[in-house]
Amino acid sequence: MEVEVRPGSGFRLGRGSSDGTLRIRQRIATRLLQVEGSPVLVRAWEPGPGRLKLCAEALDPRALRLPIPADLRPAGREQLRLAIERLRFALGVDDDLGEFHRRFRRDPLVGPLIRRMPSFRPLRAPWPWEALATAVVGQLIEADRAARIERRIVGRWGPRLGEGRAAPRDVPAAATIAGRAPAELASMDLAPVRAAALRRVAHEVAQGRCAIEDPAADRRLLAISQIGPWTVRCLGMFGRGEMDSLPAGDLGYVKLVGHLAGLGRRATVPEVEEFYAPYEPYRGLVGSLTLAGLHRLVAQGPPLRLAA
Q1: Which of 239, 242, 235 is nearest to 284 (CA)?
Q2: CB 227 within 8 A of CB 137
């Protein structure tokens, strides 16, 4: 199945994902997805200015390497359609940022970043489960270490198409993670409490007790030990596309706002929230834009523990 769309707001393909599942090579984005129990390889590329093509290819389930056995079946048209939809969501293809640009183009902080990066969109996860798992893994550790753990988990339990480092891979399903012992997850360099939290949220999702695509499920998540506001706001921003969801306890924000607000120290979480309050209902978007555009400021200073 192939479709062509015309994204708004100066869209351009950016970088791949930190876990290595979404790869962008020679301006072609490629992602292996399991869609309702069917393997699909989905791609996106720009054939010309203002145009984007997306193609979803049904795979023979026997072609996949499955570290954990699963009952897969060939994809039909509905699964192909859904695979394209989820890649569109992950890339932000259908986000119309025109109103955001108009509203803040003269803002002293955001305006120059909009002009320098007019096509900026936060990279999302295709499915809410992936965003939630990434957030749990990333609690209380630096981003580079979190990315290494994500890649280990994908390499150990994620389905892959072919062999070698270049083989397309998918994130392990919630049911797969729920079936692992905490010690197995901890062996990926996760702290034991983090491994237990990841297994617990995976079990809730796999059993259908926590419909994380619905913001109403956040209350159930927050009742789980080790799951806090930072985690659910990452889920909202990167798993549900909520532009106002700001993970204010992130190390990047407390360091960046400390610089921008002239505090001479790291900002507190309330200070981060106060700093970004004028950008409602785009606080999460502005946060991601400022982190990307001002990353050199974020890199200054010694490490600091992140929020959960």
Answers
A1: 242
A2: no
Neighbours of 56 (CB within 10 A): 26
Angle ∠(116,122,125) on CA atoms, nearest 5: 160
The set of residues, in sequence order, having a beta carbon less than 8 Å from that of 249 and lying 6+ positions away, is 228, 229, 230, 269, 272, 306, 307, 308
- 35 token code pair: 């869609």
Domain encompassing residue 33: 2-95
| 27-79 confidence digits (pLDDT tens) | 999 999 999 999 999 999 999 988 999 999 999 999 999 888 788 999 999 99
Residue 163 lies in a domain: yes
Final residue of a structural domain among 95, 116, 140:
95
For the chain, the first-to-last Cα distance in angstroms comes to: 40
Joined tokens for residue 39: 């393997």
Residue 205's nearest CA partner among 220, 227, 188, 225 is 220
Rounded to two decimals, the pTM is: 0.91
**Which residues does 147 contact at the CB level (< 8 Å), separation at least 6?**
18, 19
90 residue type, one letter: A
Q: What is the pLDDT of residues 113-133, one digit of tens each?
A: 999 999 999 999 999 999 999
106 domain residue, yes or no = no
